[in-house]
Amino acid sequence: MNIRLIFFCFALFACTNNFAQGKNKSTDTTEIKKLVDSINRTLDRAYVKKDIPFLQKHYGEDFYFLHATGMVDSKTSWIGKLKNPDNPSLLSREHDSTVVELHNDIAIVTGKLTVLFQPQANRDGYGISYIRVYAFRDKVWLLISHHSTGQWVVKNQ
Asked: How many angstroms separate the CA atoms of 56 and 142, rounded?
């Protein structure tokens, strides 16, 4: 009888503890999704501002960028484009329809991104649909992959 009581108490404690952890995990999940979404948006704003330290911190060393055109960039080549004076100046890179899906230390982000250039660039902007993958490494969310899945022209106003 004592063994059954001990087993029952242990099972009750385990279920209660798992339930409590589940509640915390669900709240944490919402907060993590908000954090990843914020980093995702801030990365593109940092690219416009040429904030190299922020970009270096949040792009993984193994970052792989497949553009809708088929061109591929690495972390070094993508950030290096900011130093090229021949590249047109960006006005903005803003997100829409963003969804964050969590899988432990991996986050998959889908959405749309509108890229606009400064008026003196004399160039239309463009929109893209994308899939991005973030990995939580050394206590930092890092963008490790970006695939543009569609692209369209956005006329300057």
From this structure: 10
